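Final report, closing paragraph on structural work. Over the funding period we assembled a curated collection of sequence-structure pairs, and we close with a single example.
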Amino acid sequence: MSNASSPAVPQRQPAYPIDPDIVHRWSPRSFLEKEVPDNVLMSVLEAARWAPSAFNVQPWRFIVARTREERETFLPFISEFNRIWCEKAPVLILVLSKTVWERGEVASHAFDTGSAWGYLALEATKLGLVTHPMAGFDHAQARETLGVPEEYAIQALVALGYQGPKEALPEQLQAREVPSPRVPVGEIAFRGKFGHSL
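Its predicted structure, as stored:
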């Protein structure tokens, strides 16, 4: 199930042809209090599993909170601003990356785990789900609460579920409940040398 039926937003029109699910993926804050079926959640995590990584180390790890009890364990380390909206999300996922392996440091652990997150987010979009990654949480408290070993870096916290109406959000967040624009390719890709137009 794809979100291709989502209403078009002028600032989200690609300049070149790409898969519509890439454009339709965004980060809403309004979630329905609707459980994500096991098979759907496992497909989202399966997609992350197939991301590329240097030396095939696959440094990504995911701590998944699905039950109310599990999610309530996460809530104390989430910032007050994020708790306002993410308490309704049926799934919370802490994204980790392994920083060492038998050959020493995994220099690309964050880069590779970012790729896995991207795969996860796109598969979620294809299945009719939405995701919202967060940096606003206490990493040290999350590590202690969830027993994360020191050799794992904490990268992000992701809310996952089915999109709810913006009217369900507090008034101050409703105006922000729209897909964000992107800068043109010419501002992010250079030819041969930094700053040289492609």
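The first helix runs from residue 20 to 24. The chain has a mean pLDDT of 93. We thank the funder for supporting this effort.
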